[in-house]
Amino acid sequence: MLKFSRNYGFKAVKRDFQLLPEFKLKCGLEIHTQLNTRHKLFSYSTNDAFASANLPNHHASFFDVSLPGTQPKLNLEAILYATRLGLALKSNINLNSQFDRKHYFYGDQPLGFQITQHFSPFARGGSVELTKVLNGIDQEQIQIDITQLQIEQDTGKSVYKDSEKVSLIDLNRSNVPLIEMVTEPCFSDLKQIRSFIKKYQNLVRHLGISTGDLETGAMRVDVNLSVNNHCRVELKNLPNTSSIMNAIKFEYERQVDIIRNGLAKTLLAEPETRGWDGTSTVKLRSKETSIDYRYMPDAELPLVRLSADAVARVKASLPVLPDETIKLLMEKPYRLSLKDAKILTLNASGHGQQYTQKELLDFYLQAFNSALENNGEKANQRLLTNWIIHELLGDLNRLGLPLREAIAVVPPTKFAELVTLIQEEKISNASGKLLLFHILEQTRDGSLTQPADLHGIIEKFDLGARSVVDDEELLKVCSEILSSVTDPMMLSGITSGKRKNSLKYLVGQGMRLSQGRVKAKLFEDTFKKLLNANW
Ligand SMILES: Nc1ncnc2c1ncn2[C@@H]1O[C@H](COP(=O)(O)OP(=O)(O)OP(=O)(O)O)[C@@H](O)[C@H]1O
Ligand SMILES: [Mg+2]
Ligand SMILES: [Mg+2]
């Protein structure tokens, strides 16, 4: 099952991965997050490391390329963003933090050092709560403690071209503001790590300070992992969630194996940094080869002094955090299911999404209030939620229409009106779907720009429900459907009650012929009558 290689890596079967109680996993995370400020951390260049990938060195000022004589100028927007994050994590904001130089030489860091915060970081302490209900972890509730947050500049990017034996340097990313968030080694299983990353990612999106995307490198997670309190191994270069999870599984099994073979004293005696090559973790450097960074305060940057009052004002401006919103939505009067509350609250990736989370939540709350105002107790909130989450969002995706534009034609009040029409059976579910899609399609094509006249359209397309159906006509339609059935066993099965499900097939035929305007129940009753089914 296990194949050893020279660096004590092995190919393990990941399918049946499990943590063994006698080998305790301990993990701590370091997460680097790029801030989406307008400008870079210490220069006026536009902060756009990825939008112009085809234009290398396009967003790079003299300072970003380290021209001698240029000096850093601190971007206060980055300080504001870091304060928001620190407060949301319940950290203590350091009113006197400072920037330090971390020296090392690499082509994509032409300064010869990275400006970071080493001696006096931006914030310390804080915590994140994970629960079984909200985050899907195995334990009822755990707390992940935050060690610190530090602000630092990103490096440039090296692009290696093997065939040409050259490495190209792109400094678009150089000096993009980063926050490194370090946790205490509180994690003891994979689910905790996965849900923490998700929650943290959602938090930075919610605060509007970063895209939080792992795929673009806007968020980069390093995992520190030890087993049974041997030395920690730091795992770097993990580009997405599955790499993070697979690297942890692999590394855990590697360390367990080392311990089992009595080799911990030699192989896990000192901290080591390892990378991930897609199938195994590979050694990058050990302590002996680790660099002496010669940290020293950056003399060109003054202390970052914040007043307690400024911090208090940032705190007052923070949005309600997702956990609180979810709780609120699950209580009266909304009483949403956890799943629906999450859809309305948690940011999926912003890519290809036709709405921001805030736009969607606002839309929901306004439609909800409008339904409540119009119908009071009678309002069917579940129907409204379903129509927003399934029909509206589905249509927006299908049509590539942003919610912002749809709102001009179907404002929340109008949407609530549409759902009331369906609830009161003035139009059928199927007609409601047609109506909504029709309106949104016209909005996308630009032929509808004003709030839609629902009643006008219902009349024009004759979408109104047939509440009073001509009995004779109904009987005629049903008889036609029955005479087209080629399997006589089906009909006798319905009569005897042995094939109750087949009745649904017949009702479906009826609904199709009537384009959904006759209620299913009417068809059901008529078929049963015609077939003498008395069940
Ligand atoms: N015994 C341990 N097992 C697993 N993780 C640990 C252990 N001890 C510490 N850690 C984790 O190691 C990480 C240390 O990160 P920190 O940024 O402080 O130092 P670093 O990795 O040496 O510095 P750098 O930022 O240069 O990588 C933290 O996430 C911490 O929780
Ligand atoms: Mg580290
Ligand atoms: Mg670190």
Automatic annotation (TrEMBL):
InterPro entries noted in UniProt: Asn/Gln-tRNA_amidoTrfase_suB/E (IPR017959), Asn/Gln-tRNA_Trfase_suB/E_cat (IPR006075), Asn/Gln_amidotransferase (IPR018027), Asn/Gln_tRNA_amidoTrase-B-like (IPR003789), GatB (IPR004413), GatB_Yqey_C_2 (IPR023168), Gln-tRNA_amidoTrfase_suB_CS (IPR017958), Gln_synth/guanido_kin_cat_dom (IPR014746)
Record Gene3D superfamilies: 1.10.10.410
GO molecular function: ATP binding; glutaminyl-tRNA synthase (glutamine-hydrolyzing) activity
BP-aspect Gene Ontology terms: glutaminyl-tRNAGln biosynthesis via transamidation; mitochondrial translation
Domain Asn/Gln amidotransferase: 366-531
Intracellular or extracellular location(s): Mitochondrion
Function description: Allows the formation of correctly charged Gln-tRNA(Gln) through the transamidation of misacylated Glu-tRNA(Gln) in the mitochondria. The reaction takes place in the presence of glutamine and ATP through an activated gamma-phospho-Glu-tRNA(Gln).
Protein name: Glutamyl-tRNA(Gln) amidotransferase subunit B, mitochondrial
Organism: Lachancea lanzarotensis
Lineage of origin: Eukaryota, Fungi, Dikarya, Ascomycota, Saccharomycotina
Gene (UniProt): PET112
